[in-house]
Amino acid sequence: MIDFIPLEYYYEVYLYYCMITVLFILLHSVVLQINDIKNIFFLKGIGIITLLLLTVYIGYRPVSGKYFIDMSTYALHFDHYANGGSVYVTEDVFFHNFMRLCALVVDVNTFFFICAIIYIIPMYIVSKKYFKEYWFYSFFMFIIAFSFWTYGTNGIRNGLATSIFLLAVSFYNKKIIMYTLLFMSTLFHKSLVLPVSAFLITVFYNNPKHFLYAWLLATPISIATGSFWVGLFTSIGFGDDRLSGYLTSELDESIKSSGFRFDFLFYSSFPVLAGWYFIFKRKFEDKIYNQLFNTYLIANTFWVLVITANFSNRFAYLSWFLMSLIIIYPFLKKQFFKNQQLNIALVTVAYFGFTYLMFTIYYG
Hints:
Blueprint: H1 10-31, H2 37-59, H3 65-68, H4 71-82, H5 93-105, H6 108-131, H7 135-143, H8 148-153, H9 156-170, H10 175-188, H11 193-204, H12 208-235, H13 249-257, H14 262-281, H15 287-305, H16 313-320, H17 323-333, H18 340-362
Helix pairs in contact: 1-2, 1-18, 2-6, 2-7, 4-5, 6-7, 6-9, 7-17, 9-10, 11-15, 12-15, 14-15, 14-17, 15-16, 15-17
């Protein structure tokens, strides 16, 4: 357990490590071409170091309900199972059986380390699968995302489920494995039914233009008839309180008290703008990218419709976890700009900048 770093600075240490790495990426983009052997060596080295350090850092953090919110609740469940208790919940039984199995062989700190592995490693695998030697650009985009820390330390179960979804996408050409993993993601957290269903829709219909129109229409529809959609989704069970929150308590309260969140809608538009630009303006053709983009649009449209509800935060991450991949994917698949590496670095700076801005607003 990492107990030599004061908990009040635990998130900041991660954040400033990311800031330093962002600066190194920017520096390399100015002096080196993206395919320069020195740049590739840098990406591999900093990538492996970051992957290992971050997994250990998140996995072996001290148990704390004050700083990691629902982590203490998970620890209580784990202690119950470690002391011979049976699974006593009626929902998400698969995850609790997973926790009970872990409790038979490891201690609580190792359990959270295992969770960190399941959460972080799929981000590496999907990045390595699609971007080869440039995988660190994609992986780093995942870990500097606004919602990354929250779902690695607080909303753990949802974070695991979405990472299993990403792992499934890594096996796109091995359909049996892919669909098995997609199903498994819903067992870890039933809310994954939404992005999994969205992904399955794109298997049969994958035209981004129509999904983009639907996303654009969702905002005025939500403003005009938001209460209708809130009532509809509440009636089918999406408003229930769950073990793990989808954002930190500070963000939960902010969402609950502020009505229509134009700032988060602005944040949600980042991958939409990226997809629109590359697919429609630059004619980027990639079946997998279209599916990921359309999956995001479908899932995010649902969130926009209920954005004013107390539980709307429970929809946000069901699309946001794809954001990093959608933004960076075209940059690493095709040459669009003369100084491609500089554009990648600037996108990374801007993406991290939003995360740091949110840190200063909610924690500064």
